[in-house]
Amino acid sequence: MPEWLATIQPTTLAAPVFLISVIWEWWAVRTGHAKGNYETRDALASLAMGTGSVVVNTLTGMVTIWLMMLAWPYHLSISAISGWGFEGIPFTWWSVLLAFVLYDFTYYWKHRLAHRMRWFWMEHVTHHSSTHYNLTTALRQPWYGPFTGLILLGVPMVLIGFHPYMIFFVGGLNLIYQFWIHTEAIDRMPRWFEAVFNTPSHHRVHHGINPRYLDSNYAGVFITWDKMFGTFVSELETDKPVYGIVKPLGTFNPFIIAFHEFGGLLRDCTRDGLRPDRWIRRAINAPGWSPDGRHNRSAELKAIYVAHHPEQAGTPGLPPAGTHAA
Hints:
Layout: H1 10-13, H2 15-30, H3 40-69, H4 74-82, H5 93-116, H6 118-128, H7 135-138, H8 155-159, H9 164-179, H10 191-196, H11 200-207, H12 224-229, H13 254-272, H14 276-284, H15 298-308
């Protein structure tokens, strides 16, 4: 694996393009040339979150690489056992392409887990906390670095022979792709593109708190993962996405945006008393889970919506009538 690959951070190189794109979108929206909405304090909060994320990731970058490199020697053992007999997947155009696709597959499950387990949601909720949807939303990133351990879902790629440097490289490309889909300025892409790739329309659904849109469209680049695993919901003209989180923050303070869910989890565990079993269940269950059974997860929210709007039962993203959350 070429050492120079470790020095390339695609998202850092793309930063000027991000900034120019934000300025263009802001101007286009404010002058009526494009659809969308900008609120100055919200946009500044998102930019502050993006800046803080860069700082945190820079400070913890070596820890992140170290965690992935711990698994690297074990791919040799797996290779020997399987009879593959190679020291790692070579750095070529086809290996980078393959790594890009496999990383996106991994990202789908990592992203899905970030919505379905509160321990990981306390990090990812940062990205969903804006009530607006524009290019600055893409920059509203968490400040946790490798702390939650979610990055370890990339270990299987290391074990089959992809060097951590290559994984981080294609991971950066994946993030760059996801930047442009955070906009209302683009309505729909050509049908063939919408069928295969993640688009602004698909990702607007992901950021929506409308009951039908909750926990859907987890893809990074290829929307085909959602179609394969039953989590795809198409954007409906009759149900425009409403953005944010189920319990709005009502603040633009970057530190509250970054750590409010971590604080909420600690408060809930404190109220439980000395009950480590409950602490663990709170951490591993979906956001909204409660030990008393009075859950407020996405499944309950969907069921409640259908109960009040029975004519919507069974439509995209909503359960059939009479469905009860498990």
